[in-house]
Amino acid sequence: MSRALLLLLVPAIVAAQQQPQQQPADLIVTNARIYTVDESHPLADAMAVRGGKVQFVGSTRAAMALRGASTRVIDLNGRTVIPGMVDAHGHVDNLGLALRTVDLTGTSSYDEVIARVAARAKTMQPGQWIIGRGWDQNDWGDTRFPTHEKLTAAVPNNPVYLTRVDGHAGLANASALKAANITAQTRDPDGGHIERTANGSPAGVFIDNAQGLLRRVVPQPTRDEVKSEVQAAIAEAQKWGLTGVHDAGASSQVLDIYEELGKAGQLNFRMYAMISDDSTTLAKWFARGPLVGGYDNTLWIRSIKLYIDGALGSRGAALLDPYADMANTNGLLVSKPEHIGAVAARALKTGFQVNTHAIGDRGNRIVLDEYEKALKTTPVADHRFRVEHAQIISPDDIPRFAELGVIPSMQASHQTSDMYWAGTRLGSTRLLGAYAWRSLLNNGSIIPNGSDFPVEQVNPLISFHAAFSRQDARDWPPNGWYPEQKMTRDEALRSITLWPAYAAFQESVMGSLSPGKLADFVVLDQDIMRVAPEQVLRTQVLATYVGGKAVYERKNVVP
Q: Looking at residue 157, what DSSP letter applies?
């Protein structure tokens, strides 16, 4: 080839190489303060989106060079943009159910619980079941578990079942006990406990696996009702700035509904679904194999949700030593340790992640031990096994998370909900390993953050705020609860964006506003990275975008 011809071709070759970058954007956001969570370009004032992905992040001048005839341009007038927030541990169908059942969150007494249930009973026919969720006896003047007599007297003609806020205990009235044929002769199941009166009769509260004795007779919603609940839950999540969630235990029916919505292009969400611990469902998915980025990157089914223990509030969390406030128990194991190990070994061979609920220090140690055994048998370099909650950890076990490559998936809002009474349950020494974010981070772990909704509120900024302040919504206690365990504010932002993406093997496609990644972002009315801590929870979500398209917009705010 002659030199003259080469000189003629070079500009054409260069232009051809640059052409894809010069294609007009579908959307350009300008005049914003954009936190990208990308270390190579952490702050920007403009962003361009094309084909559902981030095309460019940088200055307004450069972004506007990508404007075309049909490009939508939004001037945000200095408002804040962050990557789409992802809840690393929520319960989608339970949130949908909670939206249509009796809401008991925030009740300050048993009488208030009864009043809400009695009000619902007035709208229902005798014999119809009344379902509720959200009570927490630790928020009442009398923190003992309730008994059913007052509830039975107030609502005698309807079976009632009310799930505790953590989902690990429930309260039934006499009509529900009769429907389930539960008497003084009914034995505690493995991994469960029935609270009893002095004469051995059921007092009304059922803990962990004992809840199955009631739930087997509670009428189940139809498939259409479950689908409607799922869609309502997603819409509720988007309203709070969530563009995705790690659904911590989806049934076969819910997984099918996710696929149905995905195929129809109606998911509009990044759903990372964990398969519930059901032998039939697990066998199906082990045979089928993982689903990764299905239906235009809206659905991932590549993880399994297991349980080893219960919850701290109902004294079901498995502790190495007895509870400080009840010396005759150190909690419950709701699964056998060897079951955790067997599923983990099978998952490693078939490409699935395992995410196990463990709250107590004994529960956490058992899970780490079983993971370690499985990894010795079937070594996998990048397994990203997780412990869900990891609330109370022995100091000896904290370094093991990073050593084994196990991710502690935690919910900062649990700390601010539990801090008032956790010391009573645990004593002061064990609190040093409770909700120990800084200790885990300093030992090389990352911490994807979540809410465990509907256990806690959906708003992800609650856990964001708790992560770096360790204070409740009333800014208590001063300087935070065990403040040496705080995250930095930058870490707190990563905990609701990039770290959940990593915990779901998604960091190459989401988690930061980087060119080439999915254009999931949130517009906020104030700068959560700079306002005073006490102002963070006053922040309003103005718009939520998934793939560059608005799935929620606050009326009369965003142009």
A: S
